[in-house]
Amino acid sequence: MQHLVSDPRGTNFTPKPEPYPAGDAAREIERTITDRKAGTAYCFAILADGEFAGVCKLKEVTVRQGELGYWVAAPFWRKGIATRGAGFVLDNAFVDLGLDRVVAHTMARNPASTRVLEKLGFELLGSEPNSHPKWSTDEIVLQYALTNASLQERRIHN
């Protein structure tokens, strides 16, 4: 994980620091375990042909809502991995956790992430200027949401 996350191509659209500090992967895994025990985040490794390829996670989980996040290492791009991983996390959110809604955010200049969300049925709610210190305030962040009800409706009609 440390090696793959250190590739700036893969972290350009994530809040991960660049360069990715040595040892941060181990610290991130420890935080993930703590968050899962607290019920505030659920993180899943993405494997492709048995290799670690990225992460999909449900974070900021409350009784009714969570936020979807995902990261796929550059060598595994354009293979549908993010869409499949995020679909798994959505099933976990809506079926196992019983959430009503999942939100997601992506940079407007990240069309691959936008496609993932749209394939999964997320609806664009709006946009806002970036507030994260890693990027300029000129950057635009797109806000998306998917409800359990709209996902079930979509599955019935597909």
Please write the string of helix (H) and strand (E) elements. Answer: HHHEEEHEHEEH
* Class by alpha and beta content: alpha+beta
What is the CATH H-level superfamily? Gcn5-related N-acetyltransferase (GNAT)
Please identify the oligomeric state.
single chain
What count of domains describes the coordinates? 1
The gross shape turns out to be globular
Biggest sheet, open or closed, and with what strands and sense?
6 strands, mixed
Distance between the termini: 36 Å
Overview of this protein structure:
The protein is of the alpha+beta class. It has a single domain (2-157), classed as 3-Layer(aba) Sandwich (Aminopeptidase), CATH 3.40.630. Helix content is 37%, strand content 29%. The protein is built from 6 helices and 6 strands. Strands 1-2-3-4-6-5 form a 6-stranded mixed beta sheet, sandwiched between helices. A hairpin with a 5-residue loop joins strand 2 and strand 3. The longest helix has 16 residues, at 81-96. The protein is globular.
Sum this structure up briefly.
The protein has 158 residues and is of the alpha+beta class. Helices cover 37% and strands 29% of the residues.
Question: What topology does this entry show?
Answer:
Layout: H1 2-5, H2 8-11, H3 24-38, E1 42-48, E2 51-59, E3 65-72, H4 81-96, E4 101-107, H5 111-119, E5 123-129, E6 140-147, H6 148-157
Parallel strand pairs: 3-4
Antiparallel strand pairs: 1-2, 2-3, 4-6, 5-6
